[in-house]
């Protein structure tokens, strides 16, 4: 039995979880700063780091209390080394090092994005199946990741410009519907209809995405309508944006499914919480009944520390360790990648 204390602080959630054998969550404490950042229309890095500092000790204490464990029960400290906001990451990294030093525990640094992928472990009653294709979509990343085997990651496709979550947040800002944009647009689009037309972004390679042109097209559409004196039907804008953005992402994902024939397809990251995306993928994957599709419950899609415990467990078993010189890396590549 392996018990890990996991820490996550890469963006605007301060989180600690106690996870047994990478699949059993004994506690999962997430302190979200969303209410604070909403006032500014997005995450303010300086503010985020300061709130992490204020909250991290409480979050750790609470996670241990809820799991009913002491430091004697913990085999290792695993934490997000990157990618993310540098100031935010530092807080989790320093907390992890302090605990490791004080209680003589090994340190297991992990990549945040691998955590999103391994969050699927909680949605399944069996291990991940390889080869595996992961669609990792968050506020900072949009990637198609190929895993030939356990803890082996190859980015086969990614966005050329903005991450999909970033595009959701920006479109929401121009519509005046606030931050974070994903959940609002998801909800609004349900009441929208086909009314506006947006051009599908053109990306020549089979697995890459691009969202910045689409974001600009939304902005131009709104300006055009305003100039013509037409009222903006926000629900219809949300609908048009979402159908176009998700349509592109699903078509790229299906290219990879067809060409590479994985055993399993998983989604990961905050945008994987999107209800329309979930429905679209389920529909498309019906054409491939022998390939399993896993879309984790929404609470495991957004940032949390139990996902770090899930990937940290596999890293720990693979002998991955960090020394006291390990430091936060805002653009940490996937393990095995450059
Ligand atoms: O993975 P995550 O919690 O943090 C990062 O690592 O970035 O993802 C946050 C992103 C935000 O851009 C947010 O707008 C988006 O996930 N998001 C959604 C939905 N829920 C959250 N996007 C689309 N539909 C949703 N339902
Ligand atoms: Zn994330």
Notes on the protein architecture:
The protein is an alpha/beta fold and 338 residues long. Helices cover 43% and strands 18% of the residues. It contains 11 helices and 10 strands. The strands form 2 sheets. A 5-stranded mixed β-sheet has the order 3-2-1-4-5, with helices on both faces. A hairpin with a 4-residue loop joins β6 and β7. α4 packs across α11 and α6 crosses α8. The longest helix is centred in the last third of the chain and has 27 residues. The two termini are 33 Å apart. The model has no long low-confidence stretch (mean pLDDT 94). Zinc ion binds next to α4.
Itemize the secondary structure elements and their pairings.
Layout: E1 3-8, E2 13-20, E3 24-32, H1 34-38, H2 45-67, E4 76-82, H3 86-103, E5 107-111, H4 112-118, E6 132-137, E7 142-147, E8 154-158, H5 164-175, H6 181-189, H7 212-227, H8 234-260, E9 264-268, H9 275-285, E10 292-294, H10 298-301, H11 306-317
Parallel strand pairs: 1-4, 4-5, 6-9, 9-10
Antiparallel strand pairs: 1-2, 2-3, 6-7, 7-8
Helix pairs in contact: 2-3, 4-11, 5-6, 5-7, 5-8, 6-8, 8-9
Residues 11, 138-140, 165, 168-169, 180-183, 186, 269-271, 273-274, 302-303 line the site of 5'-O-[(R)-(carboxyoxy)(hydroxy)phosphoryl]adenosine.
